[in-house]
Amino acid sequence: HTTTSPILHMNSMYAAIDLLLYNREELIIKCNAPTSISDEELLLSYLTQFGMSALKDVNGDFSGVIYDENAQTLTLFRDHMGIRPLYYYADNSFMAFSTDIRGLLGLDGVDSSLNEDWIYRTLSGYFVDSVTSTEYQNIFCVSPASYITFSIKNEKISQEIRSYWQLGKKKIHYTSFELYKAKLKELVTDSIQRRLQAIPGKAGAELSGGLDSGVIGILIHRLGRDCVYFSWSVDPNEIPYADHDERLIIKDICKQEHIQCHYSQMKSDRSMNSLLARQMQSLGFSLDENEPPALRYAMPPYINAMALCDSCSCMHENGASVIFTGHGGDEGISHRSSPYEMFYHHEYYHFFRSMWSSTHGQKGRIFRTLKACKNQLGPKRRTLTGAFCTVFATPEFLNKNFRSHFSEKNMPALHFSYDPIRYIADGGSRNRLDNVALLGAYNNIRYIVPYLDYRVIDFAVSIPRHLYLKNSHNRFIFREAFRDIMPKSLYSVHIKEDMSAKNYPSNPNWYKEFAEMKTIVNKKLDRTFWSKYLDFAVIDQWMQKGKPSEEERDHDSFVLMNLFYCVMTQNLIEKTSEKF
Q: 133-150 pLDDT, tens per residue?
């Protein structure tokens, strides 16, 4: 039910909307609209009749803009969880918007100055906590579950931001565990079913060997939909199984459901004949095959970009136009909790009960339980609530003067394991969403995220926290809700690790490839610009360094990764404008 017109017109309203609607029938009834209406026209009619605040009841993945000719206002809006992107730039006299950040960087009126906070946190390894900021100081995202209205006042552009929905606003309490479990299963199943009904043809889905993707894959099959399954792990015919291999769980799922899973190859197609290259060239882009793919395709500094492209390529080759992903489960409906979360949310009885169960069978149990409580409320709490720094930190490569303007004490905590509402508000779900939206579009594939249906995620963060952790079994209620459809290996999985990588053959040319990439980074970095932020004396010393020892290899890889992120950000500007 998609319109063929990029610009919609209704009364005094003009609109451009990116939309996949999951409660279409409900809106048709509310609007008294014909069943032949497109999703985009239906949403515009709905908003015209009921106002922007009515977006709270729209179940869909959407972003859009509406220009009201009579009121002389321009309104940007976005779905509840930010699944579809929408970027904007605005100063006193100029405003622009785009679902692709590169569309803004190419405009003459846009200030493409880099976000210094992003530079510091990226190289220092700190979590970037924002749902609205970008790598560029003056380009922003529309916040999820909100709309921004732009108008002209006193000959200047002004903006008003309003929210139409709040995550976890009301706590949910039922009288039994069985009721929680039944409601969870109902919501997840309904979310997947609604999304299957909204898309024609063959579906696609990821299978990682983890709980989230496993449940989605099984439910898609049991709901009777033809589906292409794909794993990022390498084909077992290329790499033999390892102990506790995630592909063994995928094998069990496939055997149980009588389905087949496609796998990645050790050497993916990065040539000019790949799906990504063909798609870009068909749109008129000139590509340099001698550049690394991330630079060739002007990719933003996102993670797992090429692996996502491999998924899209497999789906495209096998006739699927969408990919169901388990993203959002970890912080939501299949939450990976910590014991401290119960204490943090004032569920003291369940916290102490959890500590008591953790010392089962031990001598001096009372003393050991008190010691476990002390550990959770002392060192563990300080770790969880303190600034979160990743293993990728390479702060020594920052310019010392630039670095002095920031304080480690002011860096954010990672609220993932004890306050998922705060984690989501800080932008924890965002990186993967921005990535799949962009790379899906690159490859003519749309990603579907059923765990971020606003009803599912709201239920997930609103129920008591102890439901997710029982007797040291994490993600407990989710496991129990779908226990009857899971193979034993999936139900029992603790943390999904890419154990198959243990059997990957060593690359005898790794240092040659590593050195070649160092040379590219060194050549590409614009020293005049980056000297304010990076210490090129340290960089030059590192560039001249020979082959790293095994102990140094990981850190050197992180250095190269972070410097390459800088190159990618610079490359994005260079390929979209001549301003850099």
A: 999 999 999 999 999 999
